[in-house]
Design a protein that fits this description.
With about 160 residues, the chain is of the alpha/beta class. The chain is built from seven helices and six strands, in the order E-E-H-E-H-H-E-H-H-E-E-H-H. It has one domain (about 15-160): Uracil-DNA Glycosylase, subunit E. It has helices spanning about 35-45, 65-70, 75-90, 100-110, 115-120, 140-145, 150-155; strands spanning about 10-15, 20-25, 55-60, 95-100, 125-130, 130-135. It has a six-stranded mixed sheet with strand order 1-3-2-4-6-5, with helices on both faces. It is globular and about 35 Å long.
Length: about 160
């Protein structure tokens, strides 16, 4: 992995949304394909919202390949990208951040991980400074484990009381 990036991205969606989804890395045409349809459906079914009424961003600001995912230099990329996401959070001011997937949560909020690991806190509403955090499944994981889609939607339903 090089120290420079091509195709660097920012988040997208409603900049006034109280809900921010954080992915591990950028996805082209995120609402296309199976994973995108899963997320779009979960937003509709779990939150009664359209995809355009939430904000979606990523921890890594560029796409990574399967080979990059195994590269030890990837940790450095997380360190380099984290300030950009933190600034985006500062500007958007979401009331709740939903991390999509175990890796996104563990790389962004390692201090909130408990002994039970990700499965012990998935779907929980956690407090971090002035906002709430909810770790849940990634749509990619759901596409490979479709029997958990209802759990994913139920996780999102839990935040209605927070927003």
């Amino acid at each position: 992995m090089r120290n420079s990036s091509k195709c660097v991205s920012t988040g997208f969606g409603d900049k006034n949304s109280k809900i921010m989804f954080v992915l591990l890395c950028k996805k082209d045409d995120y609402f296309e394909g199976i994973s995108g349809k899963i997320l779009q459906n979960a937003i509709k079914e779990g939150l009664n919202l359209e995809k355009d009424s939430v904000y979606i961003s990523s921890l890594l600001r560029c796409e990574i390949s399967q080979n990059d995912a195994k590269n030890p230099a990837l940790e450095r990329s997380f360190e380099l990208c984290r300030p950009y996401l933190l600034e985006e959070i500062r500007l958007i001011k979401p009331k709740i951040i939903i991390t999509l997937g175990e890796e996104a949560f563990m790389h962004f909020y390692p201090n909130l991980l408990t002994k039970g690991g990700f499965s012990g806190i998935r779907g929980s509403i956690l407090k971090d400074n002035s906002r709430f955090i909810m770790p849940t499944f990634s749509p990619e994981w759901i596409s490979k484990n479709p029997s958990f889609e209802e759990n994913f939607i139920d996780d999102l339903k839990k935040i209605k009381g927070v927003i």
